[in-house]
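Posting this for the archive.
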Amino acid sequence: MTAVRDLETNPAEAVAIAVSYEDDAVRAVDEIAARIGGTDPSFVLMFIPHKMDRAALQTELARKLPATAVFGCTTAGQITPRGYEGSAMVALAFRRAHFRVASTLIKPISPVHIAEVVTQTERLAARFPATPGRRRLALIFADGLSKQEDILVAALEAGLKDIPVFGGSAGDGLEFNETFVLHNGAFYKDAALLLMLETDLNFRGLGFHHFMPTEKRMVVTRAVPEERLVLEINGSPAGHEYARLVGVPTDQLSPIIFAENPVLVRSGNTYHVRAIQEMRQDGGLTFLSAIDDGLLLTLGRGKEIIRTLDAGLTVRDDADEAPDMILGFDCFLRKLEIEHKGLEHEASDRFRAHRVVGFNTYGEQHLGVHVNQTFVGIAFFRPRHGSPL
């Protein structure tokens, strides 16, 4: 079964979208290729269920789309024209009339070599000069288990300078075994895919979460930064101290408790979420973002998640028009919380209303910062004279 919307068959639209629910890679690619055939894409971006047979998919992409540049990653869920999904393959064909693309694969990224990433990024930007009347942006998709996104995104920011960067970390459902990026139709792990886009569309970057700081604060007193591992908080075993502050027994800590009670790090007047992935048997807490000794953390309290979702997605261009499409990178922990509260249908309604397509991530990249439990996206508007917002 395939779910698509009119966007993909309308030649006036800038991005054609197709979705397949086939479990078999051959049939899925056949459906996708049939839907986007004739759209003349500059490139295709694919968000792939983590259980899909990657070898078969890679072979079939080479057979059915041999002349098309195909990029993407594995996911922890997808956002389709229907809303939240768990086993859909999403393909976005960015039409050549509105988009130009250049790419580079950064491999390996464990560890990140900052100078090399900056040099590689500067070279890409130099090979991809801006065309008068068009603007550039960058998309980054990284191995979501590399624990290197914080350093990687900072290096990209240095190399790209005034070009805004958005993206998400590849996922593996809720299994956390392996994640992959897709570069020119081939899968890679321990890697990051950097795409530089040039477009005649106006666009606006989005980034928001639904947490407020509480009065409960804590200090990381022992950590293993390279592992994103916190062993002690406030001088006590990290898991036990976190559970005490949240107000639950340690043996009841779970992904949903972590999702609903994240810790926040303040940067200026902004709080960024540092999500907890799991508690280890030794009581340590593994995080999904950078962590270090002496870091001051604040326990977060959630606001109404559907209301903040709707408000965050309500954007307009300088002519007061809604976006043609929002390319979205939404943390898997946000989806987990929404599902736990029975709000999946309401969230999907909002995504449909705002024309969001994207995937659930293991972390989000927004303007030089790696964050968690955040929605990051790019709203694309119809081409107009003047500068993008």
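Residues 306 and 346 are 7 Å apart (CA to CA). Residues 1-11 have pLDDT under 50 and may be disordered.
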